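Internal tracking record. Fields below are filled automatically when a chain is submitted to the structure queue. Please do not edit lines marked as system-generated. If the sequence contains nonstandard residues, flag them in the REMARKS field before resubmitting.
Queue: standard
Priority: normal
Entity type: single polypeptide chain
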Amino acid sequence: MSTNYGSKRLVVGAHYGLRDWLVQRATAVIMALFTIVLVVQCLTPGEMSYLKWGAIFARQWMKVLTFVTIASILWHAWVGVRDVLMDYVQPMAARLVLQVVAIVWLVGCAGWALQVLWRI
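SYSTEM-GENERATED OUTPUT FOLLOWS
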């Protein structure tokens, strides 16, 4: 019986750890910054109305920042969903199907967000 310890062991999925941790933190920072920018925009003088809300998102830099934030949310969600599926769905075929469904859903959300943002 041979037992491998140390650097020669095969640990599936371990290489995701640091990168995923950094992605989760970086995307969280982007979401926090967007929240601060949006709150500052909403706190400017004047009544909060549809016109003010539309004016906030009418500027090109705000559309880009919003889309970057949405992309961050989607990436953040993908890392979380993938990790949950890797941990709790053992049959490889079921995991693959669920991952494909998640990817299709997230890409669809990104397309919908683009359409909404550049229609304002």
